[in-house]
Every structure is written in structure tokens, then in C-alpha cells.
Design brief:
Layout: E1 6-7, H1 35-50, H2 61-76, E2 80-88, E3 91-99, E4 104-114, H3 124-143, E5 150-157, H4 165-172, H5 176-181, E6 182-188, E7 199-201, H6 218-231, E8 237-239, H7 248-252, E9 257-261, H8 270-276, H9 300-318, E10 325-329, E11 338-339, E12 352-355, E13 360-361, E14 365-367, E15 377-380, E16 397-401, E17 405-406, E18 414-423, E19 432-438, E20 442-449, E21 460-465, E22 473-481, E23 489-499
Length: 500
């Protein structure tokens, strides 16, 4: 189970991707998942543990009995199920995979939770709670005879507590073509903690901590879950993709991920207790990985809210009609971007170019040597040089402009892109990374200013509406500036897309 890293969510910008876009239409309203039904599944898992030495751990009879219980429920509801076996530590483990008929087979939304407990206890919050919540959501899909646009696949993983063994086995054994069909993965690991917090995986890295953003599309998954909690008046905070739950194997191969989490062994702060109630100075789950993680170790309110959030996400994303890509550029080939298009740039070094960037460091990463996808991006001064400051932006402004792009006259238009801005502690707000759209008028759609603090490079994502430019031929203009003296300034742009 994962540890907790939390920070306030910064709502600067969030990305949409063609595969995980806001819905144009829904087949049906998201249901209210009955708490009593979810708790009935937890009672069954508790009874299985009681009958099998008090545990549902990998390799123990209680785990296989749990998997068979889940599979039987799904078989009766009309799912196509698979009990996928694997071996770890000399014992056989199982993943339960359930596919709902229909939906685009090339556009799969997966929803998963680990089903195993630790050996020390029955694992009702960790992670019977997530397992029961997604099971009842899957059964609600059947009850409504939902006809999603996306193909829905639910998964219950084995041996998560021993290092994500089940989910890693599943992802590693998927052919590349099958991996490519999975456009999003939602993970629910501990959603009923007794001293609950309300955390959502930080898909866009707006918190600026830890491991950086998830793969492109993760920000939209985050936003969908944020939207649900906002609709019921419950504030949320971000939690990092730290690799300690079953989203890990998915993001490692570039699959967007998201999900919710109510806390484990981390201690609830006074500020968090003020925000959500509960007891400050106490763990979110005092029975984490202990024998007392029973049906008595569940916060009904948190479990109910998270089950409804899961259903909201499945219905909202699963029934969404993907937008059409109007124009995109991953910078793997030259498409006609022009540096210094107005011949007014003042920067003496670090001019924008398309290429394979070389990493630089100075009190942390400054120029990133890795791109969001492929080999190339737009980067300020591609080479590393003899020091971090050898090819950074110096002396003023550098700009680069896209080829002309003709926009349709109808439909909601969105620009999305990945970006980073890095600088030293002697930067100021006069330094910046800026994106403008130039048509019959010019609009600044993104501006990240510098500050007098060290800022390391980390890919993030941004979107902006282009509805005001519908029917026009436009260009995208990107500027970066070292305008406040000799600060170390680096920037990058990747995966620019316009969708309708």
C-alpha cells in the first residue's frame, strides 16, 4: 500500500486528451451506489477471512475464495471474466479480469483495485474497500445495461501487498497492441479509512512534488474525480504517484492513470482535520496492515462518497464521445515551426529549436533530457554544453511559431500541450514561458512567470479554449524570456494538439 504525499491542488491548468475528453453526451446519469450493497460485499470478504485463518493474503485459501466470490458476482451480471494466474514466492496468485460487452475495443477504460490483504489480517479497508466499491460499480453497469462509448474493463489484482505483483504480471504480459488500446486506468486502494482524508492522484503535477505528472490524459482523470467531489461540497487534495499501488505498472508504460485514496499510515494534520473532520495527530487508518482491519474499521461516509465518485468517473469517462483531433505535433518530424518569426528576438543564447534535448542540472534538473513522447521536443538551447548555463536563455526573449493552422468554424475547440519552465533562485517575475495564439487578434492563453526561487524542470500539462478563434487560420507563438538579469532559464514544449 502506498504512502501519503499531499499538498494543496493548484488549479493553474489541466489537460484534455482526445482519448479521455470531457463527455459530449452520456448514455445515462451516474447512479448513486448503495452503501448497503458495498458493505454487503465487505461482509462477505470478512466472512471469507474468518473461515480461512483471518487473512486473504496471496497464496492463502482466503485469497482464492475472495477471487471466486468476485468472479461469481460478475459472471451472474453478464461480464466476460478471466481468472488470470501467476506465480510469486512459490505460490499461485490470481487476477480477476472482467470485460463488459460492447464499447470501442480500441478505447478501453480500466478500473482496478487490489483484492489481497496482508497476512496479518482480513484487509477490509486495505483493500476490501476499493475492491467492493468497484465491484458494486460494475454491477450497477449491468443493472443499467449501460452502453458506453468506451470498452469497460474491471480488474481485481493479486499480490499487491508483495510489490504490485498481479498488476505487473498483467501489464507485462499484454501485447503492445493491447496496451495501446487502454486509454485510461483508475485505481482505488483504500477508500474507507476510518480517519479519512479525500485525496486524488495528482495527474497534472499541479502540486509540484514527488514524481511529476502521470502520462498525458492523467490530468483529465484527476479533474473528473475533482469535479464529483466539488459537486457534493467535499474539498480534495492531491497525492503523488509514488509507485506504491497498482497504477504503477500502467504509468510505467505510458497509460494515463488516476484514482482516489483516503489515507493509510500517514498522520492527519490539524489543517486536514479542520478541512475534513476526524482526529488530528492520528493515522488515517490506525489498523493499517493489522488484524483489526475488519468491517469495524470502515468510515461509512468516506466509503459511500468514494463509491459514488467511482461510478461518476466510469459513467462520465466511459460514455464520453472522444473529440476529433484538428491538428497536433509531437515534434518527431519537422512541420514548419519558425524561430524568431518577427525578427525581434533579443536573446543571445538558448534560442528555441526542435531537437533531442540534453539534460542539464544546477541545484536540480534544469533542462530535461527526456521528452513527453518520442525523442524530440521544442527546447531552449538543445545542447548541454560544459555547464548548465552554457545554452540556457540569456539576454532577453526567444520565440518560435507554428505553421498556419485552419480551425473549424463549429464545435468546442481546445488547445493542449505539455510544458516546463526551470530557473535559478535569482530569477524574477520578468522571466517567463508564454504561449499565444495569433489570428485576427492575439491572445495569451498561457503564462508561467519566474520567481526568486529555484524551480526545477518537471513536465506539466495545460489546456486553453480556442473558441474565440473558430473559423480562423491561426498560429501558435511560444516565447521564453530571461529578462531580469543573468538568471539560468530553461523551457520546453511537447505534444501540442488542438481538438474539437
Amino acid at each position: 500500500m502506498r504512502s501519503l504525499i499531499v499538498a494543496a491542488i493548484v488549479t493553474l491548468t489541466l489537460s484534455l486528451t482526445p482519448a479521455l475528453a470531457a463527455p459530449a453526451a452520456r448514455a445515462a446519469a451516474p447512479p448513486d451506489i448503495p452503501l448497503a450493497n458495498v458493505k454487503a460485499h465487505l461482509s462477505q470478504l470478512q466472512a471469507i477471512a474468518n473461515a480461512n485463518g483471518g487473512t486473504r493474503a496471496h497464496g492463502r485459501p482466503g485469497y482464492l475464495a475472495s477471487a471466486n466470490y468476485v468472479r461469481a458476482q460478475l459472471d451472474a451480471a453478464g461480464y466476460t471474466t478471466t481468472l488470470q494466474s501467476f506465480t510469486y514466492n512459490g505460490a499461485t496468485g490470481y487476477n480477476v479480469i472482467a470485460d463488459w460487452p460492447g464499447g470501442d475495443p480500441n478505447d478501453v477504460l480500466m478500473v482496478g483495485a487490489h483484492l489481497d490483504s496482508v497476512a496479518a489480517g482480513p484487509g477490509i479497508n486495505d483493500n476490501g474497500s476499493g475492491s467492493a466499491a468497484i465491484l458494486e460499480t460494475a454491477l450497477a453497469v449491468s443493472r443499467q445495461a449501460l452502453q458506453p462509448a468506451k470498452h469497460l474493463r474491471f480488474a481485481w489484482w493479486g499480490a499487491e501487498e508483495l510489490g504490485l505483483r498481479g498488476s505487473q504480471f498483467y501489464v507485462s504480459n499484454l501485447p503492445a497492441a493491447e496496451r495501446a488500446r487502454i486509454k485510461g486506468y483508475l485505481n482505488f486502494d483504500m477508500v474507507g479509512s476510518p480517519n479519512a482524508g479525500y485525496f486524488i492522484y495528482d495527474g497534472d503535477n499541479s502540486d509540484g512534488t514527488g514524481s511529476g505528472p502521470g502520462p498525458a490524459g492523467s490530468a483529465q482523470l484527476e479533474r473528473t474525480l475533482q469535479d464529483y467531489f466539488a459537486s457534493i461540497g467535499v474539498p480534495t487534495r492531491g497525492t503523488d504517484f509514488d509507485g506504491r499501488s497498482d497504477y504503477g505498472p500502467f504509468i510505467a508504460v505510458g497509460i494515463p492513470a488516476g484514482g482516489t485514496f483516503t489515507g493509510a499510515e500517514g498522520i492527519k494534520s490539524a489543517a486536514q482535520a479542520t478541512l475534513w473532520g476526524g482526529t488530528s495527530g492520528q493515522a488515517f487508518d490506525v489498523c493499517y496492515h493489522r488484524a483489526c482491519d475488519t468491517t469495524a474499521n470502515i468510515n461509512d461516509t468516506a466509503l459511500d462518497r468514494n463509491a459514488d465518485a467511482i461510478a461518476y468517473a466510469v459513467w462520465t469517462i466511459g460514455t464520453a464521445v472522444p473529440p476529433v483531433t484538428v491538428w497536433s505535433d509531437t515534434f518527431e518530424t519537422a512541420t514548419g515551426w519558425t524561430a524568431n518569426p518577427s525578427a525581434t528576438d533579443t536573446a543571445t543564447l538558448g534560442q528555441w529549436e526542435r531537437g533531442d534535448p540534453e539534460a542539464t542540472t544546477s541545484s536540480g534538473a534544469k533542462q530535461l533530457g527526456t521528452t513527453v513522447s518520442g525523442t524530440n521536443d521544442l527546447v531552449t538551447g538543445r545542447p548541454a554544453g560544459s555547464s548548465a548555463g552554457a545554452y540556457d536563455v540569456d539576454g532577453g526573449i526567444t520565440s518560435i511559431q507554428s505553421p498556419p493552422i485552419t480551425l473549424p468554424s463549429t464545435g468546442a475547440l481546445n488547445l493542449s500541450f505539455s510544458w516546463y519552465l526551470a530557473h535559478g533562485s535569482n530569477a524574477s517575475s520578468a522571466d517567463y514561458l508564454r504561449v499565444r495564439v495569433v489570428g485576427s487578434t492575439t491572445a495569451t492563453v498561457f503564462n508561467q512567470a519566474g520567481a526568486a526561487t529555484n524551480r526545477n524542470g518537471s513536465w506539466a500539462t495545460a489546456t486553453a479554449s480556442l473558441n474565440a478563434f473558430a473559423g480562423q487560420t491561426v498560429r501558435i507563438l511560444v516565447d521564453a524570456a530571461d529578462a531580469s538579469g543573468a538568471s539560468l532559464v530553461e523551457a520546453g514544449i511537447d505534444n501540442v494538439a488542438i481538438t474539437r
